[in-house]
Design goal:
Two copies of one chain form a homodimer. Chain A is of the alpha/beta class and 224 residues long. Chain A folds into two domains: 2-120, Response regulator (Rossmann fold, 3-Layer(aba) Sandwich), CATH 3.40.50.2300; 127-220, Winged helix-like DNA-binding domain superfamily/Winged helix DNA-binding domain (Arc Repressor Mutant, subunit A, Orthogonal Bundle). Helices cover 41% and strands 23% of the residues of chain A. In chain A, the strands form three sheets. Chain A has a five-stranded parallel sheet, with helices on both faces. The longest helix of chain A is centred in the middle third of the chain and has 16 residues, at 105-120. Chain B binds a DNA duplex (30 and 30 nucleotides) through helix 6 and helix 8.
Chain lengths: 224, 224
DNA sequence: CTTCCACAACTAAAATTCTCATCTTAGGGA
DNA sequence: TCCCTAAGATGAGAATTTTAGTTGTGGAAG
């Protein structure tokens, strides 16, 4: 899940970034309106968090132009408590939800989850492949009832694979969703992390849930 | 030293990024013209590497507008072999040097060094503080003739300190030049890396070359 | 059909980067 | 002077990434 945060105050931006990254989202931060608009159009984000008070170009304008340009990504806007009519304008301009500053970070995370869930059309949010069950809300993963522990990157990769079970994911697709955007092609971190996942998930089983598709990428088996 | 690379082909971009990072520059990559222009104006880069063949806005236009907006940063343009008149236009628009694709990466690094040296007005490039000698070209550091080894980040931090010996560098200045732009304020990596440097440089000496300026930041002693 | 080669993928181990928790120090009140 | 707080230092170790050597695969050549 890739999220764009358009926010000019560095403190707030890095606070949000950190919180979202802890939840295993891939986060890009942009500090001004025009830049935000560019990124929103250039990359197919899963969610955009947009401050309405921006230098260069007001947030509402960014949103309007992005929508005009055909960007369908759900947008969560941030406003100061006083900017009530801004908020209304924001929702009119095509925002999907809003949050007033200052806000509890947990609130932001909850709304993020909600928006992503709504966009994905998933009713429960629980992912299951074979006897592996992943709960995106609590970030808990079990296999056959046994709890499994993952690091942030491992979890992000696993969730992406499970969300796309039965589909082949190329290395660049994985890169785009789980690692940084300007990613180095000449590394094999993905292979390494696949190996970590297999170690934890398939330990002791003969057939891995994660299949290698030679020359293309990897695929999570959609069913036994 | 912070460098902006504006280049749309991901392979080329990450190739350049990697090469520059290996030389301890802090590198930002931007994939289109408008974005490049924004970043060039928003951040005080030490060098901009600009592809002339860009989506959104031609490189020459980016350059013209940046210059019009008062951006003084040296610019190195990249062109395909066939785009001879583009190159001329680029130099007319205010570029400081050019390189034709395909190019040897060493060539790019050499020109980068040359441009940065020219801009900094440093004649030899060798930095010396007390008996610590740093050669930015070979990335070799010695103290009293003894060779010292550093990791990429350690080296970048040390070079920045030495280039500004006698001046107090705040944590945000260090952040801007050595770490990523959207840096987390709540971390103490800088302190940790200062500690690493002291361990390697001052091992066994009573007085550290790197002074702590309480409440402000750090400073490399300019002289004994 | 078999063998060989080149490339893709795998993995262990090392290196690097970053975080966290704890300890130390400096400086300003009470 | 003593104590308290904020700032800084640092060891331990977790997470991430790189490196390099090994293994596996499929196609080409014989």
């Amino acid at each position: 899940m890739r999220i764009l945060v358009v926010e000019d105050e560095p403190k707030v931006a890095s606070f949000i970034r950190r919180a979202l990254e802890e939840e295993s989202y891939a986060v890009d931060v942009c500090v001004d309106g025009p830049g935000g608009l560019d990124w929103a159009q250039a990359v197919n984000y899963d969610l955009i968090v947009l401050d309405l008070m921006l230098p260069g170009l007001p947030g509402v304008e960014v949103l309007k132009r992005a929508r005009a340009a055909g960007v369908k990504t759900p947008v969560l806007i941030l406003t100061a408590r006083s900017e009530v009519d801004q908020r209304v304008k924001g929702l009119d301009a095509g925002a999907d939800d809003y949050l007033t500053k200052p806000f509890a970070i947990e609130e932001l995370l909850a709304r993020t989850r909600a928006l992503l869930r709504r966009a994905g059309g998933a009713p429960t949010g629980i992912l299951q492949v074979d006897d592996v069950v992943l709960n995106p809300v609590t970030r808990e993963v079990t296999r056959g009832g046994q709890r499994l522990e993952f690091t942030t990157k491992e979890y992000a990769l696993l969730e992406y694979l499970m969300r796309n079970a039965g589909r082949v994911l190329t290395r660049s697709m994985i890169t785009e969703h789980v690692w940084d955007l300007d990613f180095d092609t000449f590394t094999n971190v993905i292979d390494v992390y696949i190996s970590y996942l297999r170690n934890k998930i398939d330990k002791g089983r003969e057939r891995s849930l994660i299949q290698t598709v030679r020359g293309s990428g990897y695929m999570m088996r959609s069913d036994g």
